[in-house]
Amino acid sequence: MAKRILKRLYLSILGVLFFTFLFISCTPKKFSNTSAIVAVPPSSPVFIKINDFVKLQQVLDEKNEWWKLLGNIEKVKSIQDGILFIDSMMNTNTEVKRIINGKEIVVSFHPGGNSEVNSLVIMPLNINGEQGIAENFLQGFSKSNHLRAQKRKFNKVSLYELTSDTGNDLKFAYAFHHGFLIFSSKALLVEEAIRQLDSNAKEENSELAPLLKTINKQAEINIFINHFQSPEIFSDLLSEQMKKKVLLMKNYSGWTELDATIKNEKIFISGFSNGDSQNNYFANILLHQQPGISRIERVLPSSIDFFSGFYLSDIEGFLNDYYSYLNNTDINSQNQNQLKEIEKATGFNLKDLFIDIFDKEIAVSSIRFDQPMTEQCKVLTIKTKSGSYSLNKLEAFQGAYFKPTKKNANEFVKDYKIDNQINIRIFKFPVENMPALLFGNLFPNVKTCWFTVYENYLIFSDSYSGLGKTILSNVLGETLNADNEYIEFQAGLTSNNNYTFFCNSSLAYSEADLFFSKDISNDILFNSEFGKFKYIAWQVSSSGNMIYNNACMYYNPELRIKPKTVWQSHLSSLVVKKPLIIENKYDSQNNEIIVVDFKNNVSLLNNVGRIVWQINVGSPVLGEIHLIDLKKNGEYQLVFNTEEKLFVVDRNGKDIENFPVNFSVKATNGVSVFDYENNKNYRFFVAFEDQQICAYESDGKLLEGWEPSKTDHIVYQPIQHFALEGKDYIVATDLMKDYIFDRKGNIRVQTDYVFQHSAKNTIYLEKRTSSHEPRLVTTDSNGKIQRTYFDGTHETIELNGLDDSHYFLAANVDGDDEMEYLFVQGDQIILQKNSGAILFNQRIDCGITDKPSVYKFSKNDKKIGITCSTAGKIFLFNTDGTLHSGLPLEGSSEFNIGFVNSDESNFNLLVGSPDGYLYNYLIE
After folding, report:
1. Percent of the chain with pLDDT over 70
2. How many CB atoms are closer than 10 A to CB 736?
3. CA–CA separation, 311 vs 410, rounded Å?
4. What dihedral angle (degrees, nearest 10) is formed by the CA atoms of 518, 520, 522, 523?
5. pLDDT score of 263
6. Mean of the pLDDT values across residues 433-448?
C-alpha cells in the first residue's frame, strides 16, 4: 500500500509539473530563498517546491472545473487520487495536518530504468518536536500497513527501509537529517539527499544559484528544470514526434525556475532561465536582443491554430549569433551551401535581402480556414520597413531566379479576387525552403511557395488559396487583435518580449496525438470538453544576463465552437438592428448589406462582407432603415432617423441635398415612408416628444396641408399607412389610443375605445375575408387581442394569459385567406389561428429577447425567426413548430434571410454575433 501511495504522490507531483509546464504564465513578484532545496541531489533533472500543500489542495478542489476535467486523463486521475488521499490523512490525523499545514514540500524526480521515474520528497521539520510526531506517525503507519522497518546507518545518519512483512521488496525508505524528513521509494535517493546536505556548504551550482534568489514563495509551486538532464523525465508523456523535439531542451539553457500560480480560470507561470554565457545555449542568442511590443497579431487571422513569432531588435546580430550556435551542425553547413548556390545563380544574397527589408517582427502560423480541414495552411508573416520597397526587391529576385528558365512572367503571378473592387496580386516564390535556409529549426517544415504584401507585411504561404484567404481575413477584420477573447487573454501576458508562442488549444486539442503519448491523447480526443481549454501562450524575453519566461493557460467554462459560416465580418461593435439586404442594381449577382451597430455606425457591406463605407450618426437609429428611389432612376437611397435628425443618404453613404433635417424636438419613433400613388413621390412621417406627428416632403420640407391634432400621449410605434378599398388610412398609436387619419391629418375613423397598448407591439391590418370585415389588430398590456373596425366599433378577445413583456405579430403563415397570430414571451412561442385554434405551442431553452419575424422561403413555405441574444442563439421554426434543420445557430441580434449572391441556390442568413461580427450562414 505504501508503494501505491508513493506512486500516487509521484504521479500527482509529476502531473502538476508537466501540465503547468505546458500551460503557463505569471508575473514577477518579490522572491526569497528556501532551505529545503539544499537537500536536492545534483542528479535531479527536475524538482518542484510546493509552498503550501493545503493551499494547493484548496485551489484544486472539486469546484475547480478545469482540474475536474483533467481527471478524464487517466494519469491525471491518479494525481487527483493521490492528492485526495493525502488530504484525507490530514483530515483524519491532526498530527499529520499539523506537520504538513503551511509547509513547503520539495519533490525531485530521477529517471530509472524502463522509462521509470523515481521521486524524492523533502520536507522541513520545526525544532519543536515535529520529528518525534513524524516518527510516531510513520511507526503507526508501518504497523497498520504490515510493514517491517529495518534501520541502518549511512554517513552516521539513521536510514529506515520499510519492506513488506510478507516479503523483502522495498516499499520506501526515509531518514531525518539536519531538520528534514527525507523519503523515497529508492533508498539510494535518500542517501544522495543525505550526502548533498553534508556537502552543500562546500559546493554551489553556478547556473542554479542565481535562480534561487528569484523564487516567488507566494506561488503555489516553484518548478526547477535542469535542461541537459530533463528530456528523459518528460519523454514518457509525449508522442514519438515530440520526444525528438524535447531533446532540444538540452541545449536551451542551464537551469530554469518557474513560479506557477493558479487563479480562477487561468494558470500563470513565470520565471528565469540562466546559463553560462560561455556555453553554446540557444537561449543565449536572445541576450543581445532588446524586448519590444509586437503588433503582428493585427494581420494574423483569428482562425489560427497557433503562431510562433520573434521580435528582434537587431536581425543581423540575431542571425550571426544563431549561425554561431549552429556552427557545429550539418544543418548549418547544408543551408550555407544552398544560399551560396542561390547567390551565384541570381546575384542576390538571400540573407542580405532579408536583413534589408526586415523590421523587427516575424511569425509562422498554422491556419484552418474551413472546418473540418485535413491539413492546415502554413503562413509566414514578416513586418517590413516598406511594403512597396520589399515587393520590388522580391520581384527582382524572382525575375533573376526564373530568367534562365525563359518562362513567361505571367506564370508566376496570379490575381486573387476579393470582390469587384479588390484584387490581390500573389507571386510565386522560387525558394520554397527559405525559412529553413535562414532560420534552421526555428521555422521547420514551412514552405514559402507564394507571397504578397499587405500593409507593409510580407506574407508567404504554402498555398495560393490559403494566402488569399489570409488577406481576406484582414479585409474582413477577422484578425487576432480584433478577437475579444484573445484581447482578454492578453491581460495575462507581458507587452514586451522577444518570442511568443500562442496556441488556440480549443482547436488544436483534436490533434492531441501529435503532442502526447497514445494513452494521454486517447483520453483527450474522446472528450470534446477539452475544447474549453481555450488558449495557451509562452513568451520569452531577454532580461539582463538571464532569460525571462512568461506564459498563461486560459480555460473557458463555456464551450464555444466557432460557427461554420460563409464569412464573418468584424464590425465596430454589436449589431443592434436586423441587417438589411439590398439588391445591387449594378451587379445583380452581388447584393449589398446595411448594418447598424451599437456605436451608432451605419455600414454598407458587399457580398463578401467587406465594409465599403461607414458613417456615424451620433446617436441610436430609431426604427427601421427604408429604401427609396428619389431620382426615379433605380438608384436607391436610405432613409432613417435618430432622436435629433432625419437622414437620407445615397448608396455611397453621402447625404442627399437638404439632409439631414435637424429636429427641434426629440423624435420618439422611427421614420415611416409612404408612397401613396406608387409613383415615388415620398412622404416621411415622424412623431415627437411634444406629441406632434410631422410629415416631410422628399426634399426635407414640412408637408403642406398635414395638420393633425396632438395625440393624448407620446407615440412610440411607427406611423402606418393602409390603402383599403380606395381610401388611405394613416394610423398612429399612443399608449392608450389609436388614431386613424386621412392624408391631411383629419380624423377619418373615430376611435373612442381606450386601452393600454402593449409596449413592444405595433398594429396590423387584417383585410376583409368571408368571416370578418377589415380591421386593425394589436394587443394590450395583458396580451388580450384588441380589434378596431373601420366603422369605429371595437372588440376584445382574451386568448392567452400574457404580460406586457410579450411580442405579438399578425401574418399569413399557412397560405389561407386569414391572418395567424404569433405570440412570444419568455421562452414560449405560440402560433394560433385568429379564431383561437392553436397551431403550435413551443418552448425553448433560453429567453427570447427580440421581436420575431416571419420569412418566406416559397409560396407555401414560411418560417418563424427567434433570437435569444443573452444566450447567443437564433432559431428558425417551421409552421408546425418543428425546428428547421441545422438550427439553432450562434447569433445575438435580429436576423434577416435572403440572397447575398442572387445566383445562390441556398438562402443567406445574416445575424450579429456576441463578439461584434456579422455572420453570413447558408440556409437550405
Report:
1. 92
2. 14
3. 35
4. 170
5. 82
6. 90
d(CA 298, CA 487): 11
Cell of 450: 507564394
- Cell numbers linked to 714: 407620446
How many Å from the N-terminal Cα to the C-terminal Cα in the chain? 62
Q: What is the pLDDT of residues 736-778, one digit of tens each?
A: 999 999 999 999 999 989 999 999 999 999 999 999 999 999 9
The sheet carrying 747-749 orders its strands as: 720-724, 727-733, 738-741, 747-749
Question: By mean pLDDT, which of 1-5, 47-51, 380-384, 760-764 is the weakest?
Answer: 1-5
Q: Give the count of beta carbons closer than 10 Å to the beta carbon of residue 430.
A: 20
Q: Is the pLDDT of residue 16 over 60?
A: no
**Which residue blocks in 200-328 are alpha helix, DSSP H?**
209-212, 231-235, 240-246, 315-326
- Grid coordinates of 520: 494521454
Judged against a pLDDT cut of 60, whether residue 23 lies above it is answered with no
Residue 105 CA to residue 100 CA, distance in Å, equals 8
Distance (Å, rounded) from C-alpha 239 to C-alpha 589?
50
Structurally, what CATH architecture does the domain formed by 617-751 represent?
7 Propeller (2.130)
Cα–Cα distance for residue pair 523/542, rounded to 1 Å? 37
Domain ranges across the chain: 2-261, 292-495, 617-751
Please report which confidence band the pLDDT of residue 370 belongs to, taking 50, 70 and 90 as the band edges: low
180, 149, 182: which is closest to 164 by C-alpha? 149
Unique residue bearing C-alpha cell 523515481? 118
CB count in 10 Å sphere of residue 610: 18
Cα 813 to Cα 827: distance, rounded to the nearest angstrom: 21
Cα maximum dimension of the chain: 116
Cβ–Cβ < 8 Å for 688, 702: no
What is the average pLDDT value for the chain, to the nearest integer? 88
